[in-house]
Protein 1
Amino acid sequence: MHDDDEVSVPYDMLGSRFVTPLFAAVTGWTTQIVSSADVVHVDSVALASLPLPFSSRTFANPLYIASNVTGFASHDYTDSCNAFHVYDAGLAAPILGQDPQIKLMVYEPGYAFANEAPVYFPDEQSVYFCSDAGGTLGRSNISFNNVVFRVNLTSVLAKLDNGTSTSFKMDVETVAIDSGGVQMTNGATNYQDSLLLINSGRGAEYPPTLALVDRETATAKVMLNNAAGKHFNALNDVVVHPKSGAIFFTDAWYGQTQGFRPYVDLPLAVWRFEPESGLLTALTDPSIIAVPNGLAFSPDGTKLYVTDTGPIYNGTVQPTPSRAASIYQFDVQTDAATGFQRVGAKSVFAWPETGVADGIKTDTAGNVYVGTADGVSVYTPMGQPIFKAFMPQSGAVNLVFAEHGRLIVTAQERLFIIQLNSSITGPPIWDYPL
Ligand SMILES: *[C@@H]1O[C@H](CO)[C@@H](O)[C@H](O)[C@H]1NC(C)=O
Ligand SMILES: *[C@@H]1O[C@H](CO)[C@@H](O)[C@H](O)[C@H]1NC(C)=O
Ligand SMILES: *[C@@H]1O[C@H](CO)[C@@H](O)[C@H](O)[C@H]1NC(C)=O
Ligand SMILES: *[C@@H]1O[C@H](CO)[C@@H](O)[C@H](O)[C@H]1NC(C)=O
Ligand SMILES: *[C@@H]1O[C@H](CO)[C@@H](O)[C@H](O)[C@H]1NC(C)=O
Ligand SMILES: *[C@@H]1O[C@H](CO)[C@@H](O)[C@H](O)[C@H]1NC(C)=O
């Protein structure tokens, strides 16, 4: 912990710079700029010993305010409580920059339109993402597919800067993908010029797939839809190795727990797929990760991070907090002669303070950004907590860097932009060797 005097981060208490949300319900909802965000210091020493008596916080309860800030009851958790909670001021300052912000870009109450699969394409300055597959606010189920959307950042950010309202109807464009192989999309990444989607599948007829979508035509080509003739369970998230171009992805079981997929007799696993050779390799099994979810590489590709959503193992019953909810780190091993890869040593990288960790990304310096039940937690490459973008009303499902310090966050009924120091960005995406 550094002294406050050493850094230029403004330490305001929550409340001093709140902008009152102004919502206008006309046709659907429109959203006006909701909050800039304060930066508050976490007093870890004081928090280490809470005043007695106190009740233990429950699994998903976001009410733990890891800062000096007090006085917020649960009903106060509006979007204007969003703030940066800083654990290490010296580490946070260069990432946050002079004027860090958490802004609501689009809000559509009652529809989890922005759940997963955020991908940014610099040539379009647009972000793609998908609606919830099978959740209560997803408007999708065994009979109805979820939807892939696109938002033009240039246009939406101009509106936010201008104080002009945004809305789901006006600012979120449906990407009508031409393939039955794209059912219940849950993850995505850039793949050269194309959009690589990972899909959970729907019912017994549409298996989970990896599909490559041409952005011009919105036509999809299915690259993978089975493991030696077996359906995957419910494919979840995908990333491409920065050096080999191999596709690493996770298979979870949320299709089954949410009632839109049958159980298939494959262990939940992290997999690796070489599109050119067709080689498919299992990298983990449930003895290594219970329910693999989000995944990301360090910028040099030597480390793989995987979030484990082990406690959420059955959509019909309460989470089991004793099961693993770690963010794991693996060494990535590469055979110098063949380029074949597997994962080696595993260790616990971090533990999410609230709920489970979901989507995960790294910046060019190797810092790790993770979506959790109460916001985006940021760690050094060693796993030391730097700060949390505290978003208690929505949490953060998944996230992606756009350029110029912009971090786009999908949070179910909300799409956010977190503005960091403009030098912060994700690793380059155009240099896959294929
Ligand atoms: C947090 O609490 C500590 C100890 O009471 C105090 O020194 C510090 O100034 C407080 N920080 C803020 C941002 O109020
Ligand atoms: C923002 O990043 C630049 C480039 O790394 C750095 O020079 C600058 O000091 C950072 N801003 C703050 C406020 O630390
Ligand atoms: C399935 O989703 C559709 C579209 O949102 C909805 O109209 C329908 O009621 C849902 N069916 C069930 C059984 O939930
Ligand atoms: C995004 O919006 C801007 C400003 O309205 C427009 O100039 C640009 O063509 C749009 N980009 C795409 C890919 O539609
Ligand atoms: C900016 O606001 C003005 C006045 O409300 C409006 O006429 C204009 O269309 C807005 N521009 C954008 C890009 O939203
Ligand atoms: C989930 O819970 C239900 C109800 O308790 C039970 O019938 C089902 O077998 C459970 N499924 C799994 C995968 O644990």
Protein 2
Amino acid sequence: MLNTHPIEKLKTLEEFFWINPRLEKAEVAFSYSPLGKEAVLDAESRLRKFSPYIAEIFPETKEAGGIIESPLVEISSMKKTLEKLYEMNIRGSLLLKQDNALPISGSIKARGGIYEVLKYAETLAISHGLLKAGDDYLILKEKKCRDLFSRHSIVVGSTGNLGLSIGIISAALGFSAVVHMSSDARQWKKSLLRRKGVTVVEHEGDYSIAVETGRREAEENDSSHFIDDEHSVDLFLGYSTAAVRLQKQLKQMNIHVDRDHPLFVYLPCGVGGGPGGVAFGLKLAFGDDVHCFFAEPTHSPSMLLGLATQKHEKISISDIGLDNITAADGLAVGRPSGFVGELMSPFLAGCYTVKDSTLFYLLKHLADTENLYLEPSALAGMAGPAKLFRDGSAYLKEHALLEKMDNAAHIVWGTGGSMVPEEEMNMYYQQGASAYK
Ligand SMILES: *Cc1c(COP(=O)(O)O)cnc(C)c1O
């Protein structure tokens, strides 16, 4: 069993917990990382410059001063339920980072997507002499800026939350926004985007070819900016700022993270940018005291496959016979981002996979115990703590963590949910009620 190659395990479609043999000491990993602290702090300071403007155009962010942030909450009832479901003791405290409740687009994509569009707007305004260092960014609301933006388009290919986030923010700034979707994407997403003035292009057949077409068209057109989910450093940095804010939230809650108080974070992973960016920021903030795990559906373990084989974007789950069919549409990715995989390889503690039935089951229990409603993708992190204690004891032993676990904090990253229409959520809940572990 121990020596079974990860590929063989993934092929069985059973849930699998993989410990990353290439994890390095944070100090060593950062010494050869192409990105560092300055890049993350630069992104955070750019978001601060935009905050008065964000507070104006999105009133729901006014109270937080135009900073797009989500609550961190302890979920001790859910912890008790997990202990019952998994018949084990989960040592340490259990918290939920509620990116399901992020303002503007209700998912983790409100971090990366919005950051990249704002940065593009800033670059445009500066290059056209409409904005300079030290200016109040409220200028961007003025007609001359909106006119400039309206002559430019932002293009993205996404069937889900990235499309929502990019479409909503682009339209609000005055850009013309084009979201390429497969024709089987959820109707409510298409309708919502069209109501906001976004052009939704639907593609039959091979959706990835359609995205490629969108990418090429945008590249050939100077007035078009393509948001590249797989390669974008700006998206990644937008996500990474979450760590700066989380550090403050932990302090406010009196939760210490240090040698004797380890932090475990469980992040649902699709192409990798969202969880990668967040984990990268967390490693900068907490170094070896934070342990980051990525979670994927058993039918779409693309990041795990890329990391375990070190082939990253050069291997697809279809190469090992998997079908990429999952209800977790935010995680239904066949080929991971090579940029993120290579960058994060020395920083990650491990990855694990979860069955769809587990996602629905956890969705139902989280709703019952905490009255919190997340979308299926966002529940992948919730299985993490139980999996760590059940299948990760080698990791805990190797890092001398066993005797510290009573002081541990486990943060489950709840990556989306608040945009899901109620009828749709009810269906998810019903599926959870009839699923079993
Ligand atoms: C996009 C998404 C993720 C994963 O982010 P990636 O950047 O694709 O890895 C996780 N959960 C939800 C709900 C998402 O929409």
